[in-house]
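Q: We require from you a single protein entry containing the residue sequence and its fold in token form, and nothing else.
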Amino acid sequence: MKIGVTGASGHIGAALTRVLIEKNYNIRVLEHNDRRGFEGLYVEAVKGSLSDKDSLNRFCAGMDIVFHLAAKISIGINSYELLRKVNFEGTKNLVDACKKSGVKRFIYFSSIHALKHAPLNVPVDENRPLLKDGRSGYERTKALADEWVRSRGANGMEVIVLNPTAIVGPYDYKPSLMGQMIIKIYRGKLPLLVPGGYNWVDVRDVALAAANVIEKGRNGERYILSGEWQTLEGIAQIISEITGKEIKKIMIPMFIARFGVPFIYTWSKLTGRRPLYTGQALEIISHANKNILSKKAERDLDFKARPLNASIKDTIEWFKNNDYI
């Protein structure tokens, strides 16, 4: 079986590519501008992008299944137009190329942020409506692509959607925003923490469930892949316990954090570094549902989330072994 993977240089893509290779599938990746996630692996690489239709046609030719992970992830530092071009229009371009090439199954990685979290006192499951009117451009564009893929994109091609929560774990080559946060907490460079948190899930568990979609996923279904809820303060405490280091943890009220966002944004522009605290990030972290269910994926895809402590420990170990910390 021949399988294509977009976004193989990203966190989930790098882990998924390794799982698929272990299962002896023939893998082709779409190489954009970074190959660290699959460097040295036995894969075929096709250079291109989601806006280059010719490269997408070459990428999809002869593929049986395509996993679509490539996306522009943003928490307030990119324009809506750019996010729409990549996350929505790029997805449409890829689906068109898949249909031209006769791809049988399209597996789309959406996000938990594409689903509405309110009301917060009711658990989130696959029946939640899409957040097409969200304040974040990332949320809106992922929700739009999610809706289009499931309702109008298939046209005879099987489509399955995956919605993972916040990702941690090894193979975070770029590193991701969550990886950067863990690195900064470890180094004591993020002493000011805000209230709120995320549902965290290990990238290896997500990758294994995604690979299981090939044989076990049901056409037209959505699967949430979630793990364990934890606050930023709790993450800092876990890192402190794992490493034996004293981690500075100064909690600041959310209104003070919001007041400081313009200054953080200006500083990020001057230094060229992506800010972890933006207005949209604070909005997400303070209005995220604490109870996100993955029972459907557990039943259909044999999904099982490992303890968060183990994931954080392995993440730090991987960052150490690869000279990130």
